[in-house]
Amino acid sequence: MGTNTNTNAEYGADQIQILEGLEAVRKRPGMYIGSTSSRGLHHLVYEIVDNSVDEALAGYCDTIEVTILEGDCIRVTDNGRGIPVGINHKSGKPAVEVVFTILHAGGKFGGGGYKVSGGLHGVGASVVNALSDWLEVEIFHEGKVYRQRYERGVSVYPLEMIGECSPGKSGTQVTFCPDGTIFEETVFDYSVLKQRIREMAFLTKGIKICLEDRRDGKEREDVFHYEGGIKEFVCYLNHSKDPLYGDVIYCEGEKDGVYVEVAMQHNESFNDSTYSFVNNITTPEGGTHLAGFRNALTKTFNSYAKANKILKEGEAALSGEDIREGLTAIISVKIEEPQFEGQTKQKLGNSEARGAVDSIVSEQLTYFLEQNPSVAKAICEKSLMAQRAREAARKARDLTRRKTALENTSLPGKLADCSDKDPKNCEIFIVEGDSAGGSAKTARSRATQAILPLRGKILNVEKARLDKIYGNAEIKAMITAFGTGIHEDFDIEKLRYHKIIIMTDADVDGAHISTLMLTFMYRFMPDLIRKGFVYLAKPPLYKVERNKKVWYAYDDIELEQILKEIGRDGNNKIQRYKGLGEMDPEQLWETTMDPETRVLERVIFNEEDASEIDLTFNTLMGDKVEPRREFIEMNAKYVQNLDV
Ligand code: TTJ
């Protein structure tokens, strides 16, 4: 294992430095992993798995296993070369010990490949170690098995050789238990890990990642393995949409130290669902790589359309937006030293990424279009339609803008507004149906609660063009009631109510209607959701009466609990509400609207989950019936229970 050439004095200095480093991490964990909430907890897993993914990117590992063990400990195993066990000369310690005990020493020990480190990730295994009650690493290398254990980041014995393994076997296994005195939440959520691990697998083609839950009563497993990588990611995102053509267009190459992969496919919808990644980490604010992609796309399609007389002399060029209508795309770049900019450091700044993506996509897309004229034609025609619709929408919007200027923002006729004019105190209930709207108007607290009843089905904005959307009465009513405007006119400062509460029946139709409304807000006023102004009301499902006393149950489990408490006999009268309309105003107030007693769910929006949210809305709103079944389960992920 090499020899220790350092003097004792240097060794001592080293120890102090390590302890100081770990101390800093334990003192300010948020600085290193973002937060100590559930999010930070899950982040520890990604941090460790990233190391194995790096080994896979370098070409030495093809399988990673992630296991949640009893007691919410995590085990990550890979079949890579194994973290080096030889002495690192600078520190006089085995390299593996350096990896786990010295801050920011998570890098490569020789060997090429891209280091996956961006955003909050890439802080290194030592941070995970420092924040774990205990951590054990086992390395399989050249027929031998090595092990070291740490407690709260400090080794409890030197690296030891504990046995032999078959000479062909190699790899690294790390098992750790997050420190319960540091994390507010120590229970892992399988579905959260599953989502990110699936994404990692899509972004690293060919890799096989197995996720397993071994906790008692929670046993389950999934295997993620995509030979097609981001091509399959695009198929996955488009699975409930109708693709405009069969192929997924794929470009790949390397330029100026930037490895670029792009996959894309248009569908019949009208949204742009482009997601960009740097070193496997999502960049919700885009950056140079996204700019390069957009430039290449616009330029290449306009050249093609002109050269093939799809766009005639003197006709307006297709805009980027036109070409991106109904596009699902993944842009993934790998770069040695990513620079992140912007307020949340989520925007790629490296200028070489712009040029690399632009030139690789321009060249390969041009070739693809020449080889696949029917696909090229389908995309150009869709873009031309988009161009015409956008022009019509602009005219319709100009008209409504002028109108609102003239009529001085008159509020919709159906709105029963509140008297208080301070948005902070005000809430608006968007109510499905006129009859429930009537009850809500009677029940409400006039000073602070406004009611906007909407009639029938809300327009599905996933399936309508802008001109139709702007012409829709229900949507116009919401826009003027909220007061914020939409798209580029959107101004959160003008919001007239700080709680927008969607109130629908507690059944499948009601859920569908709330989703339609949420879809509209998500696409046209995402900041409303982002900033936490949007809520779902929770009307009860059952009313239980016994000896003149009344209980309300909001789900079946609660009903069971109530019945257990009060006893099950002939004296109970149970009523199942089929809709809001069955409640009289007083009941509606008491159960669903009274701020003192009601339950609201706040709709939340996690930027990192954007592709998954997009998928959810699309699944719910798209044409395919089958995927819609997952609705209730998935929707539950985007709400947060609040008692407000
Ligand atoms: C680095 O270059 C020399 C050969 O070994 C390479 C290496 O360190 N590979 C490696 C590290 N594979 N897997 C890891 C690893 C795996 C886990 C689960 C956790 C950590 C910190 C590293």
Provide a descriptive summary of the structure in words.
Helices cover 38% and strands 22% of the residues. It has 644 residues and is α+β, with helices and mostly antiparallel strands. Strands 1, 2, 5, 6, 7, 8, 9, 10 and 11 form a nine-stranded mixed sheet that branches. A six-stranded mixed sheet has the order 20-19-21-22-26-27, with helices on both faces. A five-stranded mixed sheet has the order 12-13-16-14-15, sandwiched between helices. Helix 3 runs parallel beside helix 6, helix 8 packs parallel to helix 10 (351-371) and helix 10 packs across helix 11 (373-407). The chain is globular. It starts with 7 loop residues before the first helix and ends with a strand. Mean pLDDT is 87; it is low at 1-10, 105-121 and 622-644. Bound molecules: ligand TTJ. Ligand TTJ binds at residues 48, 51-52, 55, 76, 78, 80-81, 83-84, 99, 108-111, 125, 172, 174.
Write the layout of secondary structure elements.
Layout: H1 8-27, H2 29-33, H3 38-57, E1 63-69, E2 73-78, E3 87-88, E4 93-94, H4 95-101, H5 125-130, E5 132-141, E6 144-151, E7 154-155, E8 160-164, E9 171-178, H6 190-203, E10 208-213, E11 220-225, H7 230-237, E12 249-255, E13 258-266, E14 273-278, E15 281-282, H8 288-307, H9 320-323, E16 327-335, E17 340-341, E18 347-348, H10 351-371, H11 373-407, E19 427-432, H12 434-443, E20 449-454, H13 466-471, H14 473-482, E21 499-503, H15 508-524, H16 526-530, E22 534-537, E23 542-546, E24 549-553, H17 556-566, E25 573-576, H18 585-593, E26 600-603, H19 610-621, H20 631-635, E27 639-642
Parallel strand pairs: 1-10, 14-16, 19-20, 19-21, 21-22
Antiparallel strand pairs: 1-2, 2-9, 3-4, 5-6, 5-9, 6-7, 6-8, 10-11, 12-13, 13-16, 14-15, 17-18, 22-26, 23-24, 23-25, 26-27
Helix pairs in contact: 3-6, 8-10, 10-11, 12-18
The structure holds ligand TTJ.
Residues 48, 51-52, 55, 76, 78, 80-81, 83-84, 99, 108-111, 125, 172, 174 line the site of ligand TTJ.
